[in-house]
Amino acid sequence: MSVETIIEEIEKLNVLELVRLNKTLQDKWGVSAAPVAAAAAAPAAGAGPVEAAAAPVEEQTEFDAILSEIGPNKINVIKVVRELTGLGLKEAKAVVDEAPKPVKEGVSREEAEKVAAKLAEVGAKVTIK
């Protein structure tokens, strides 16, 4: 299988499948998709722009699960939003009607993925930021 074929297949995946793929690859090979600060070891001769680029990048710990598309089953999406957030019917309907709209904010990566998976089951699409 060529690299081009693999890339073509990856392009066909939705966001939830890409997240699962990323997690599986990280677990299988013990690697992280976080950028490596290799520029920090650069010589001090050209230190001006290199220092700015070598600033440590903090890993994101809080994520937002944003309902981006509700799909064909609006009523089921409202039910799941109510279940996930504890909102009343009116408030949950407002979240769904105003999509794209955050369902949960400032949660862990795992929690955001659970929200995305639960809403994907009823046909909605969720973006994790």
Give a written overview of the molecule.
This protein has a three-stranded antiparallel beta sheet with strand order 2-1-3, covered by helices on one side. It contains six helices and three strands; from the N terminus they run αααβααβαβ. The chain has helices at residues 3-11, 15-29, 47-53, 74-85, 89-97, 109-121, and strands at residues 63-69, 101-107, 125-128. α4 crosses α5. The protein is globular. It is an alpha+beta fold. The chain folds into two domains: 1-31; 63-128, Ribosomal Protein L30, Chain: A. Helices cover 50% and strands 14% of the residues. The longest helix has 15 residues, at 15-29.
Looking across the biggest beta sheet, what order are the strands in? 2-1-3
Write down the Rg: 19 Å
Share of residues in helices: 40-55%
Structural class comes to: alpha+beta
What do we call the CATH topology of the largest domain? Ribosomal Protein L30, Chain: A
List how many beta strands DSSP finds: 3
- N-end to C-end Cα span: 32 Å
Runs in which pLDDT lies below 50 for 5 or more consecutive residues are: none
Largest sheet: 3 strands, antiparallel
Task: Based on the model shown, name its key terms.
129 residues; alpha+beta; Ribosomal Protein L30, Chain: A; 2 domains; three-stranded antiparallel β-sheet; 6 helices; 50% helix; globular
Q: What is this structure's SSE topology?
A:
Elements: H1 3-11, H2 15-29, H3 47-53, E1 63-69, H4 74-85, H5 89-97, E2 101-107, H6 109-121, E3 125-128
Antiparallel strand pairs: 1-2, 1-3
